[in-house]
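Before a computer can learn anything about folding, someone has to put a protein's shape into writing. The three-dimensional part falls to structure tokens, numbers that each stand for a local backbone shape. The protein below has been through that process, and both of its lines are reproduced in full.
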Amino acid sequence: LPVQDLASARTFRGEVRRVDQLAALGALGASVVHEIGGAVLAIQTLVDLIAPQFPQESPDHRYLEKIQEELDRIRRLADEIRNLAQVEIREPVPCHLESLVADALWMVETRYRDKGITSTKSIPPALPPLAGDPDRLSRAFLNILTNAFEATPTGGRVNVVAAKEAAPDDLGAERVIAVRITNSGSYISPGDLDRVFNLFYTTKKEGSGLGLPVAARAVADHGGKITVRSSREEGTEFTLLLPIGKAGSRS
């Protein structure tokens, strides 16, 4: 086989392996999340009971705040695992890309307002709707955008551009909607590009390493895929390729 075909085959096998790993973790995660939920509820109840003993002016109130922060972090982690546990999409419905992206972008802009990041969005109104699960697609956009805003330095920029394009051969579709999310000022080395969708891989101090895998799983279950490229000059670009009129689990 030509070198290019061998590289494409390796890339495809890597994508299938990642999806299979996500499905396996998701199946295990459903029971784990149930147990975590019970423990978190018990701890939260105890925190609420003792909170009146430590008013905000108390020097020991900071301990309660720290416990609450950790409980919230565990809840977020459990939520990501719960998303992995979704092994198939619900009955597909028309999903309008502009509203899904706009809602996700607004949430991330609000969260990172203090960073002074400039964001732009270009989505043609004539794009056809996607058939799929709006909750899971929204989560995918939210996770990718969150990653972009976190990686962008203060005063940087994040751009979202969508267009209808011919589908790559490995998706088995004729046309896709390509959503490109680009952020300035960040760089992923070639050695790390193949790892960003691996479970629990993260370079962030507080990261779970599940945000990007959850997004990749959601897109894969809609028959699509996510690609990423990065350079020191142009920053990092994630591209979500979603087949038009198609939604089906690959798990």
